[in-house]
Amino acid sequence: MTLARSEPTTFITGEPDSPLQRALSLVIVGAGARGGAYADLAAKRPDVARVVAVAEPRSRIREAFAAKHHITPEYRFDGWHQLLARPRIADVAVIAVPDSDHLAAAIGLADLGYQLLLEKPMATTEADCEKIADAARRNGTALAICHVMRYTPYTVKLGQLLPEGAIGDVVSLQHLEPIGHYHFAHSFVRGNWRREDDSSPLLLAKSCHDIDWISHIVGRPVARVSSFGSLTHFRSEAAPEGATDRCITCPLRDTCAYSATTLYRDGLRNGGTKQYFTRVMTAGELTEEAVTTALTTGPYGRCVYHSDNDVPDHQVVSLEFDGGVTASFTLTAFTPLENRHTKIFGTRGQLTGDGRHIEVYDFRTETRTVHDTSLDGSSAAEGHAGGDEALINAYLDALHGGRPELIVSGIDVSLASHRAVFAAERARHTGTVVQL
After folding, report:
1. SS3 helix, strand, coil % of the chain, rounded to 5?
2. What pLDDT is attached to residue 278?
3. Contact assessment for residue 166 and residue 349, using Cβ atoms and an 8 Å cutoff
4. What is the pLDDT of residues 90-132, one digit of tens each?
5. Which of 78, 87, 169, 264 lies most in the core, judged by the most C-beta atoms within 10 Å?
6. Are residues 214 and 329 in contact, defined by beta-carbon separation less than 8 angstroms?
7. Mean pLDDT of the chain
């Protein structure tokens, strides 16, 4: 079906609190891990949304996705450029393409009248983020950035406890993102985000989530930023004696903490979290032959000390907000793969959280109260602690039911937190404090 071209409106329904009398139609622009996950979640609510088209350059992934979602051949596209050459075919475009394509895809689709759910980061430069925001505003686009951490039950609970005065007035915050040693080696040494010139700064690619979340929790504009970080370990100077260019030929492959053969074969044989990385490495083909081929010829088989990566492997960011609240943020490769850790310091208590559990310590009573925010007993790492599903549900309900207040990662707040990230990068490169 082809929808008639019409003047774009901020919400499909046109009238607040007036539910649409049909399901929203979605085109998935990029059917990789993120696009596929969002499509699966939307498909759980067929009365509210239907996936009707896909744009994906990898033919095997495109055809498997189309078969799963019953997409007819005429709505299977080789890439997002093809969507720009024809009238709008769906209500919503879910954009999960490489970061460098966000600008052109988002502006082009907004200009055609699509409503947009855009994977983070918005774009790879501050100027491009501004251009996307401008396009959304001039088209009346319902734009939401996939800052899933804003939507989790954990964050919602924090949003109840803090205004209620559980720890008094917030004075400062300490937040750690433990990326995990093999996750970092996969994504930021061997993978798509290893080089700033090919993708974006590490802070933007991995942790714009966190800067956005901290800003959301504090609830005030960022005033000043400083930052420090560098590439310390994953470089040729740190290579152990005898290391070769590829793990599959390396005599140290069974003892190296960053061995590709260990990581991806563990994922193949034992499943679990590592299987996700193996699936990415082989483009979804979970066989011994596919893993061996990828280790022998692909980027994920390279030695972490002999790659062409240049993004930092550790970084700290200091933030001062309007009113004097301060926050410190640390991201590091050198951890187990585990949940983020946060401490919030208030005038009457301290709050400690891990993405699922929240412990409130009261200064007056010297008691500790623990809140478990998991809905099903899962860890904070699974589905971003419920954030993926909560984001999709909020966005679909906002459009389908005419409830814009459900989108809490819209244009203005997402643009503001991206500006803070770019300011932090300027501070890191210049050794200065940057004022916003």
Report:
1. 40, 20, 40
2. 96
3. yes
4. 999 999 999 999 999 999 999 999 999 999 999 999 999 999 9
5. 264
6. yes
7. 93
Bridge partners of 145? 118
**Helices and strands (DSSP H and E) totals, the chain:** 13, 15
Backbone φ and ψ of 208, nearest 5°: -65, -25
* Domains in the chain with CATH codes: 24-149 (3.40.50.720), 153-234+309-379+409-435 (3.30.360.10), 239-301 (no CATH)
Do 20 and 26 meet the contact criterion of CB atoms below 8 Å apart?
no
What pLDDT score was predicted for residue 376? 61
Q: pLDDT tens digits, residue range 358-404?
A: 999 999 999 999 999 987 655 444 556 789 999 999 999 999 999 99
Name the 3-class secondary structure at 40: helix
pLDDT score, position 370: 97
pTM, two decimals, is 0.91
What span, in angstroms and rounded, lies between the C-alpha atoms of 168 and 402? 35
d(CA 104, CA 84): 10
**Which conformational region is residue 283 in: left (phi greater than 0), alpha (psi within -120 to 50 degrees), or beta?**
left
Residues 6+ apart with CB under 8 A from 234: 185, 189, 304, 305, 307, 309, 313, 333
402 backbone φψ class: left, alpha, beta (φ>0; ψ -120 to 50)? left
Nearest to 341 by CA among 202, 204, 314, 332: 332
Task: List CB contacts of 271: < 8 A, sequence separation 6 or more.
Answer: none
For residue 281, give the 3-state DSSP assignment.
helix
CB distance 417 to 436 below 8 Å: no
CA atoms of 335 and 32, how far apart (whole Å)? 26
